[in-house]
Amino acid sequence: MTKAPSNEPNPAFIGTVLSVVALVRDENERILLASSSENGPWSCIGGGVVDGQDLARAATEFARDDCGLTVEVGDVVAELSGDKYRVLYECLADVTYVATVFDARLLAEDEPAPMRVNWFAAEELAGLYLDEFATAALADLRLL
Question: Is the residue at 128 inside a domain?
Fold first, then answer.
């Protein structure tokens, strides 16, 4: 299995990256999404993991480190992969993500974090500016 790339782009990397998504929903079935900027696209909460990393733990760490959230992950709700999850980066790295999606529940918003988060009702999702991964994932999860 190929390891996830480091923080620096690697133009020689061609392969599969394991990733996780914490699908955080509230009692009204709203979905929590993240964005790195005021104008940037909305993203799923999660990211790439390295071989051997516990996937559930990785999902909670992404929520905490990227979004300042404490979440509890539950069951795996989907395994997503295929051409919709293939990304050709500007540096020419060719990556296909294989994502394990965990059902998750928000326990606390702990501290300011690099990414901002917001709740969205199902009927709002179709009108959002979503990144390509979130668009594919939410469609495959039948939320879009």
Answer: yes
In a domain, 14, yes or no: no
**Measured between alpha carbons, how far is residue 23 from residues 20, 49, 62, 84, 95 in Å?**
9, 16, 12, 18, 22
The boundaries of the domain holding residue 88 are: 20-140
- Report helix, strand or coil for 61: helix
Number of structural domains the chain divides into: 1
The Cα–Cα gap between 125 and 44 comes to: 12
Per-residue pLDDT in tens (0 to 9) along the chain, 144 residues? 444 445 555 556 678 889 999 999 999 999 999 999 988 899 999 999 988 899 999 999 999 999 999 999 999 999 999 889 888 777 777 888 899 999 999 999 887 788 999 999 999 999 999 998 999 999 999 999
Would you say residue 6 lies in a domain? no
What's 44's domain CATH number? 3.90.79.10
> Cα 85 to the chain's mean position, in Å?
12
